[in-house]
Amino acid sequence: MYNMDAYLKSLTSNAVKLSKKVQDGIAENTREFRFENQAHFLETNEDKMREIRQNLDSRYEKEKLDGLKRLIAMISKGRDVSEFFPDVVKNVASNSLEVRKLVYIYILRYAEQEQDLALLSINTFQKDLSDKNQLIRAMALRVMSGIRVPVISPIVILGIKKCVTDLSPYVRKIAAHAIPKCYQLDPAQKDALLDIITTMLGDNSTFTIGSVLMAFNQVCPDRLDMIHPQFRKLCKMLVDMDEWGQITALDLLLRYSRTQFLNPQGRSAAPVTRPVKKTKPVAKSFYSDDDSDVSHHSSDSEDSSEDENHAVDPDLAFLLKCALPLLQSRNSQVVLSVAKLYSHLAPAEDAYKIGRPLVRLLRTHREIQYVVLSNIVAIASQRPYVFDPFYQHFFVRSTDPVFIRNLKLEILTLIATEGNITFVLRELQEYVKSSNKDFVTQAIQAIGRCASNIPEMAESCLGGLLQLSYSKSEPVVAESVVAIRRLLQQRPQDAVVMITQLTKALDEITEPLARANMFWLVGQFCSQLPLVAPDVLRKAAKSFCSESESSKLQILTLGGKLVAQDGTSSKTINLLFQYVLNMARYDLSYNVRDRARFLKGLVYGQQKAGQENVELDSSENENGLLDSNNNDSSELESESLQGGGFEYSDKELNLSEHVRKILLSEKEAPIQENPSHGREQYMVGSMSLVLNRSVSGYEPLPDWPTVQPDPSVRRMAATMEAPGYMNDRTGFGSDSVYAQSRQQNSSSSSNSNTAGSRTYDGQSGAYRGAQTLDKFLESSEEETDSSEEDSEEEDSDEEEADSDEEEESSEEESEEDGDEDDEEEEEEEASSSEEEAILPAKSTRSNGRR
């Protein structure tokens, strides 16, 4: 009975203790998981500051964590808390990963101020480099490389070298990130860092290689010779890299390709406009990808490209093939990087592949749309046929902002072809109906550019612009007349009809820019408008006082052209021009007064001087003009003009004879440049292209080489990765008997032409005739046995020959021995030359038995 009571008491006490522990555990867990107010970490009174030091010296990890959180919060507010550096450094070897992270952040912040105390933690970091946890190893190297103390640069180098050979790809990635930091800390360590980068470029982890290439770009971007052995491997690893690694790799491979391959675009130059092609239908499967098929290519282009594809380097074609799947990436920068690669490297027949992926990016945010559209403008200015099948995707939406709308209009004018110009013009006519005057102006300018690019549609465009010139909107009328003027300069055969139609609306058009362009058109084509031009001058003379300055200048020019054409035969035109000159003489604008004085002296200069009856021979007149600057001419009589006081001579300044050439000469048609003209000179995907100006730090692509560089520098690396070699250069297979047997086999195969001889194919990276490694080894063993038997027979023959030669004289023996030595040397040279053609260059080679 007593035992039962004691048992119950002990059971009760244990239950109470257990329940208490459970309650404490629940309370602690609730404290950890509940949403607490983090504002108390920002309190900076004296009591809280004393609590921080107590928390850092506590033996409980949670109190240390609270103290570190307070410090990090103060750092975020800009307060100096370097006084706690000794207390924080003591916790650098904490078992809690969260505490270590905060300690590392604090040390990185104040390591430069407290260099002596920061050096005390270096030993801990060096020990952590050998920790079992890969996160601790990586964090230790990250913090050690982030401490900006130049004294520890050799220690950082040793840490990087140790982490380069780490089994964890994450640690090797952090080691790659530490290389640029160490280089900025101490540039004198560049040679050691180059050796590390060379080693890390051979890393086969796709998780690491992107960071290695980033370090390469920051430390030694010009050492492209280090990429030779890794070029094909980088091409293969493109698909499996992370997104930012893909961007870095594509940029590096682009610069590498521009220095190592000949220009395939020069061999197959892309036309500026889409050529006339006969489409060839290609059957598509249900799951076919439009990005990869070439159904929109023509049979003519395919036939012509067959002769041109051989000019493209196989390695360059391999790079383009490996980069093609990245066009389906979800990262817009990756897609843009592939487009940059194709636009600067790919021949014309491969440029179609980047059209649809770039158009797909237009469904994202408007900031990304602007960048993509800017790059499309640059690509379309060189290769417009890439985007002409997708012209509907560039139609302007009502929600598009101004900067996107203008770029879309520009792209529509660049990719317009004979097949889609009808739909493009129909869309542009709808834009003209918009209430936004600036948008209407841009649309009318786009119509004019379309008509200039496609002469077949110029007539219909002129008709549409003529209708717009009757609009009630002054900006629409002004831009329409300006567009008509530019088109008529390119198509003078349509000038008479169009100008006649325009002059009918002269009384209704009040826009100064439109009226000035109309007066210029009438004056330029006045010889073809003998009835219309004088009547326009009559109307202009009536409204001269109320015209704008630009219109007055063109009216004066119109009168001068008519007088220069008809001379003094038409009194009406002379009277109208005199009236205009008198009105311009008292105008408020000095430009108008100067123009009137200039035209009066040019047209009436000789007549006002009283020299109407002076007849000069044309040859004498020309000689006078040519010899106007010579000193051997006789004294010239000069008379002052009544109107202006100018002095003219008989031979020196007689410009009136050439007034027709001066005023009525044909003017060249203006060249219409796109608003984004100049973007194509910058590299696709660069900030300079988006801003259309050179930005600080922009480096243009290197020019294509004129002479083909040696392609064997890349094929050597492929040889080392062939089935006959191990990927590990230091382990089994590097200097083994197997390597020697391959050299013996190559020498024996040169003597006997067997069907099983093997040659290395640099493009495929394998040996022809060896299907598997086992068969390859078996065949090599058989050949070694046969070579040994042949060598034994040769030895027996040599012994017999030696016994026969013992009877001869010593002189003959020496001569025959010299001949035999020469023959053996020739055989060895032949075998070694064949080995060099088949195998890569080696530092040491064993030629078998001599």
From TrEMBL:
One annotated GO biological process: vesicle-mediated transport
Composition skew (Low complexity), residue ranges: 621-633, 740-753
GO cellular-component term (any): AP-3 adaptor complex
Pfam family, one: Adaptin_N
Protein location: Endomembrane system
Keyword Membrane attached: yes
The keyword Phosphoprotein is assigned to this record: no
Residue ranges occupied by any Clathrin/coatomer adaptor adaptin-like N-terminal domain in the UniProt entry: 44-603
Keywords: Membrane, Protein transport, Transport
Residue segments, region Disordered: 265-309, 610-643, 724-850
Taxonomy, superkingdom: Eukaryota
Acidic residues: bias regions: 779-837
Family in the record: Belongs to the adaptor complexes large subunit family.
Protein name: AP-3 complex subunit beta
Originating species: Entomortierella parvispora
